[in-house]
Amino acid sequence: MALVDSIIKGFDPNPVSASGYRASSCTLNAGGEAVNESVTAAKLGLKAGILCALGNDTAGKLVTEILRDAGVETSMIARPNGHSTPVTTMFVNDDGTRKSVTCKAHSSGFRPQDSREAISSAKAVVLGSLFRSPFDDPDTVLETVGLAKGNGCLVFADTKIPNFRKLSLSDFRDALPSIDYITPNEDEARFLTGLTDPEEMAQVFLDHGVRNVIVKLGDKGCLFRNSDVRMMVPAFEVNAVDSTGAGDNFMAGFVSEILKGTGIEQSLKFANACGAICTTAVGACTALKDRAQVLSLLEGRRAP
């Protein structure tokens, strides 16, 4: 998913006129899991490319420019005829929590599995939004992960709650065993499993064949589970102002460390630090600057 986030912070529901409202700030940022993760990966020193669909419109040009400025390879971006770049309106509360408004522009008919050359040259393939377009189609997921695994790629999957289709884990039973790491947040895991205990949530994913499960628990850190290991990794204390994209920064940080050969616990600590840094500024790709910044937080365990 690649889009523009219109972020409204400190929205006051009390009107100042018949049709006028106030907020503390209103900003535009490139967003969507694929954008956030590829930009953060590039900042962390990885060679990152993006497979996505954008419109030939102002929003699409904004996203492309931000990707290029970050050093992300953009040659694989599709421009379907008649497709508008999605714009998501985000209402961010004072504590950094948020709600979003989406529309059907988020569904483009884009087929990432057609980009065989790009996938075959990658060391890792990240499904930025499992259960959201284009990965709300089980056949698309199965073909994409099958192509990735056939070329020896590690497959990572972030998740979203489905927004335009009714879906369950069982709909993706053929593809899930090819996913090396899946990273739902607590709300997503609750929706997909019907459970409330993170340990039990993780077990459901394992029972569906996923090899490694990371349940992101916000300010409580994250839970890691596989068939042999259970691990809780605490979060970092920071002054959070906007949680938009924190999970995407987490994913990019985790992938970067796994590809470096770092162990699971240290990779999760690094990922938690990336997510924490992200929350200290408005916008998913604003606060995190480079790998040195993350290492500094890891060494001092203080807010950046």
Q: How would you spell out the order of helices and strands? A: EEHHEEHEHEEHHEEEHHH
Task: State Rg.
Answer: 18 Å
Helix content class? 25-40%
Which structural category fits the helices and strands?
alpha/beta
What does the secondary structure layout of this molecule look like, with pairings?
Elements: E1 3-9, E2 25-31, H1 33-43, H2 58-69, E3 87-92, E4 98-101, H3 116-120, E5 124-130, H4 138-150, E6 154-159, E7 181-183, H5 186-193, H6 198-207, E8 212-216, E9 222-225, E10 230-233, H7 246-259, H8 264-278, H9 291-300
Parallel strand pairs: 1-3, 5-6, 6-7, 7-8
Antiparallel strand pairs: 1-2, 3-4, 8-9, 9-10
Helix pairs in contact: 1-7, 5-6, 7-8, 8-9
Q: What does the model show?
A:
- The protein has 304 residues and is an alpha/beta fold.
- It has helices spanning 33-43, 58-69, 116-120, 138-150, 186-193, 198-207, 246-259, 264-278, 291-300; strands spanning 3-9, 25-31, 87-92, 98-101, 124-130, 154-159, 181-183, 212-216, 222-225, 230-233.
- The strands form 2 sheets. A 6-stranded mixed sheet has the order 5-6-7-8-9-10, sandwiched between helices. A 4-stranded mixed sheet has the order 2-1-3-4.
- The protein is globular, with a radius of gyration of 18 Å.
- It starts with a strand and ends with a helix.
In short:
This protein has about 300 residues and is an alpha/beta fold. It has helices spanning about 35-45, 60-70, 115-120, 140-150, 185-195, 200-205, 245-260, 265-280, 290-300; strands at about 5-10, 25-30, 85-90, 100, 125-130, 155-160, 180-185, 210-215, 220-225, 230-235. About 30% of the residues lie in helices and about 15% in strands.
